[in-house]
Structure formats: structure tokens, C-alpha cells
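Per reviewer request, we include the raw input and output of the structure prediction for the construct analysed in the revised manuscript.
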Amino acid sequence: MSTFISAVQALTSGISIMDAIQILLGAVLALAMLLLFKPLLRGIARALLLVVKPKLNKEQRLQRRLMQDAMMLNRMLNSMDSAPSHAAELRAMAARA
């Protein structure tokens, strides 16, 4: 504990009360500005995210969903090697998809 106290004293020995108040006031002002402009900053972050990773259009989402369904059916087929009746049903479902 004495090490912590001596470290704090060493750090605060060169800081006056006015400097500490100015630092605290600056931190409070920065926090207030952050809270005030939170919706704007959130919108900017979303816009930057869309630049990096654009949304897929409707056709691309449909194709991705169909591909995921086909991959899921293939995984199920591979896991159902021991049950031929289930494998036949899955193959019929895969043929329709």
C-alpha cells in the first residue's frame, strides 16, 4: 500500500490544485460534448461501417440463404449415413431446394 501512496505522491507533486481543476473541467466538458453529439457520432460510425462492409441486396441475400440451406442439407446427409430412410428424405428435400 505504501508503494501505491508514494507513486501517487510522486505523480501529484508537480500538479497544483488549479491544474487538477482544469484537467477535471476539461474531462467533464469532453464527456458532455460526447453525450451531446452521440447520435451524430453513431451515424458517422454506421456510415463508415457501410463503406467497409456494404449491405447485400435482396437477390444476394436470397442466394446466400439458399446456399446455406443446401450446405445444411449436405451436412445432414453426411451425418445420416447410418439411416438410409432419412438420407433418402433429405435427398428428396435437397432436390426440391
